[in-house]
Amino acid sequence: MIKVVDLHKSFGKLDVLKGITVKIEQGEVVAIIGPSGSGKSTFLRCLNLLEQPTRGQIWIGSQEITNRQTDMMKVREKIGMVFQHFHLFPHMTVLENVTYAPIKVKGMSKSDAETQGMELLGKVGLVSKANEYPSRLSGGQKQRVAIARALAMSPEIMLFDEPTSALDPEMVKEVLEVMKSLAYTGMTMAVVTHEMGFAREVADRVLFLDGGQLIEDAPPNEFFASPKSKRAQEFLEKVL
Amino acid sequence: MSVSLNFSQFIPTIPFILQGIGVTLKIVASAALLGFAFGIVLALFKIGRIKLLTWLADLYTSIFRGTPLVLQLMIIYFGMPQMIGFEIEAFPAAVIAFGLNSAAYISEIIRAGILAVDSGQREAAMALGVPYPLMMRNIILPQAFKHILPALMNEFITLTKESAVVTVIGAMDIMRRAYIVGGDKYAFFEPLLIAGIIYYILVMILTMLGKVIEGRMRKSD
After folding, report:
1. Record: contact B138-A150, CB cut-off 8 A
2. Are B10 and B194 in contact (CB under 8 A)?
3. A159-170 pLDDT, tens digit each
């Protein structure tokens, strides 16, 4: 469960988040959408403290991560993150990418980590690429490895920051399929996305952000059929 | 004017000069190791958050880059005994001087290399809960080294050549031996030329070694 109360984030004089309060339940899949510059990526990055909030509180389960006493590294182990530009480790093979953190951070044995790694690569359909370097993979394959890498830490929550935005159109589907099957396993997911189809089909709720504020929070059928706010209406007119 | 080069009389002295290779290599290898290790520490200070350490590392670099190497060497060999109360041998003095000096240059090379690694790598490591020391050792530095290998090789080549200044403190390196032979025979051109050829071959070997390492690091491209 993620609970966010009155979250503010400023970069210098620029207020990017202006007081966001929201709750994401265990096992929920939440799509975060909005125009560019609305603060949706910043919001997501605050959830594992890649950005330090200026003000407000964030709870992950019963732990307040915005409390300075919290060991952030321990919390991050429980939160997987997938980035727009993959950020695979280029000097490691696909399997090494997937086994690195379990071995070094969790202290898992190499053989256990490799067994688990191959299993995860199986789930994202990339067993045959286990010993390749990331530079040999397509964008879609890289992103699937990145998902496997995050899952290797057995996270309770997965954050996706525009996971398909940097992909060629024909590779979007393979990544969304992996995300969809992950959603069906009951993983708690927060997904910043421009894929309205994914939001509509897979998400339990849609959060619409604009100007650093949470404008709408509704189930997808409700949100896409009859957005309440003018800003959401205008946004949907442009993207649909 | 008559040119009178006579290499034949120097042939018996070549083994004596060649023995200097061991001395030169020992000094260069030890100094390179010291410079590299200390250079990494300085680079981490420079990019770190602790302002005092950044300032100290910058000051260090500016002093060691801002004064002649031969002066640093002479201060350590001739000057330090006055401060510490005992003599320093030529070998450790040379290793310390070259090591400290190249650390200043190497730290700048490494700093640039670290900054050239995509910031996403750091974020990905952080998101996985990888602690800072592990992140640096396993993720950032290996990628940085790939970028900076040519610059680093350059520094080691410079170090190999510059090691010839240990002659001034009497270490029996290639240069010193060539000089002694020259004094012995009252002819300097030939032994110095021999020394020059030896240095050139050493540098060529180093260059080739660098290419091999670079090729190996490229395997992930």
Report:
1. no
2. yes
3. 999 999 999 988
User: Which residue type occupies B30?
Assistant: S
- Kindly provide the b/e burial profile for residues A69-96, where b requires at least 16 CB atoms within 10 angstroms of the residue's own CB: eeebeebbbbbbbbbbbbbbbbbbbbbb
CA distance B70 to B79: 13
Q: Are strands A55-60 and A205-210 parallel, antiparallel or unpaired?
A: unpaired
Interface of A with B (CB under 8 A): 48, 50, 73-74, 76-77, 79-81, 83, 85, 87-92, 100-101, 104-105, 133-135, 149-150, 153
Residue of A nearest to B130 (CA): A105
* CA B92 vs CA B30, B96, B159: distances in Å: 9, 6, 16
| Inter-residue contact B150 to B214 (CB < 8 Å) | yes
Query: Quick check: B127 and A81 CB within 8 A?
Result: yes
Distance CA(A95)–CA(A120), nearest Å, equals: 10
Question: Is the CB of B130 less than 8 angstroms away from the CB of A104?
Answer: yes
The single-letter code of the amino acid at B193 is L
Asked if A190 and A44 touch (Cβ cutoff 8 Å), the reply is yes
Task: Tell me how far apart the alpha carbons of residues A39 and A215 are, in angstroms, rounded to a whole number.
Answer: 12
Contacts with B205 (C-beta within 8 Å, 6 or more apart), sequence order? none
State the Cα–Cα distance between residues B57 and B73, nearest whole angstrom: 20
In the chain, the amino acid numbered A140 is G
Residue B187 has phi, psi (to 5 degrees) of -150, 120
DSSP string, B33-51: HHHHHHHHHHHHHHHSS-H
The single-letter code of the amino acid at A57 is Q
Contact B134 A105 (CB under 8 A): yes
Residue A194, CA distances (Å) to A23, A51, A160, A214 in order: 21, 22, 12, 17
Cα angle for residues A228, A232, A233 (degrees, 5° grid): 80
Determine phi and psi for A103, rounding to 5 degrees: -70, -50
Contacts 24+ apart (CB under 8 A), B197-205: B198/B17, B198/B18, B198/B20, B198/B21, B198/B174, B199/B160, B199/B161, B199/B164, B199/B174, B202/B21, B202/B24, B202/B25, B202/B160, B203/B157, B203/B160, B203/B161
| Binned average pLDDT, 10 residues per bin, chain B of 221 residues | 74 89 94 96 94 96 96 94 89 95 96 94 95 94 91 92 91 91 89 93 92 82 72
Mutate to test the interface with A, among B117, B128, B149 (most CBs of A within 10 A): B128
pTM score, two decimals?
Answer: 0.85
